[in-house]
Design goal:
It is a single chain. With about 120 residues, the chain is mainly β. The chain has strands spanning about 5, 10-15, 20-25, 35-40, 45-50, 60, 70-75, 80-85, 90-100, 115-120. It is built from no helices and 10 strands. Strand 5 and strand 6 (about 60) form a beta hairpin. It is globular, with a radius of gyration of 13 Å.
Length: about 120
């Protein structure tokens, strides 16, 4: 079965850190661009960060640059999102997905998501 499983979410105070994990099964993570997305209550899903499969280049939403870092460990078939200096506006369900490249609008293998709550 092809799927992602996200984990690592939780409740943290503003300024704190979390590391989200995205474990892939049924396919090789390194063959795809991996993206992290989030959806806050009442808002549309937005792309947060992406790592390219071709050269490892990373891309991030302007509001998270300098705070969030995406990485992947192909040996573990797992991608990560290190989130530092968290802010209340980062509160959302975070998802990972795969695509052919970071600029694609077609993403698949969505996981169930992991909830991140940031309190003041």
């Amino acid at each position: 079965e092809v799927q992602f499983v996200e984990s690592g979410g939780g409740l943290v105070q503003a300024g704190g850190s979390l590391r989200l994990s995205c474990s892939a099964s049924g396919f090789s993570l390194g063959d795809y661009a991996i993206g992290w997305f989030r959806q806050a209550p009442g808002k549309e899903r937005e792309g947060v960060s992406c790592i390219s499969s071709t050269d490892g280049s990373t891309y991030g939403l302007h509001s998270v640059k300098g705070r969030f870092t995406i990485s992947s460990d192909n040996a573990k078939n797992t991608a990560y999102l290190q989130m530092n200096d968290l802010k209340p506006e980062d509160t959302a369900v975070y998802y990972c997905a795969a695509s052919t490249d970071c600029e694609s609008s077609l993403w698949g293998n969505w996981g169930q998501g992991t909830q991140v709550n940031v309190s003041l």
